[in-house]
Design brief:
mainly alpha; globular; Hypothetical protein af1432
Length: about 180
């Protein structure tokens, strides 16, 4: 595997939107925390989180191409097959296959909860990630109109890998707090 800086540079070559880059960095932090939780390889899981949306601007997030192109783009990047598979499977619409592995579920749920955490942060009076409480994120899961584009079913895949939503929210929020400034929060 190459260095994190190599993969950051690769991401920046294909993704120019600063909010999308922040989403990818947030996904990386959450996946690293989940890897620690499961005693998995933190670098492999983190890089998968970082690169999962590398094709989002090229495909315009078109649901039947997004993630498939990413997997093709990353085939020559010295990533383990399991990382490329998790990236490909984070968008089930493109593959027409259900997610089955812990890594696949973790990436899909982790990158999706990042969006919910960002939205929750924006409704706090100070708009600071350090103020966000995991229980607030879990509570927002029940509010269908709040951040309506965030797929709650995908976030709930955390339970398929043995993490209740309250703990998943805690792991995810705590993973983001140390990089809040980098994320713009």
């Amino acid at each position: 595997m190459k260095t994190r800086q190599h993969y950051l540079d690769l991401l920046a070559k294909h993704v120019t939107n600063p909010r999308m880059i922040a989403h990818c960095v947030a996904s990386e932090a959450i996946l690293r925390a989940l890897a620690r939780h499961f005693a998995e390889d933190e670098d492999i899981w983190g890089i998968a989180g970082l690169l999962h949306d590398i094709d989002v601007e090229i495909t315009a997030a078109e649901p039947h191409r997004h993630a498939l192109l990413a997997a093709e783009m990353l085939a020559s990047e010295e990533l383990p097959a399991e990382a490329i598979d998790a990236i490909r499977m984070h968008n089930e619409m493109a593959t027409n296959e259900p997610r089955t592995t812990r890594f696949q579920h973790a990436l899909a749920a982790g990158e999706t909860i990042a969006g919910l955490i960002f939205a929750t942060t924006m409704v706090y009076p100070d708009k600071k990630l350090e103020s966000v409480k995991p229980k607030s994120v879990a509570k927002r899961m029940k509010e269908k109109m709040f951040a309506a584009s965030v797929n709650r079913e995908t976030i709930m895949e955390c339970e398929k890998i043995g993490i209740p939503i309250a703990l998943f929210a805690e792991i995810s929020v705590e993973a983001l707090k140390p990089i809040a400034a980098e994320l713009g929060f």
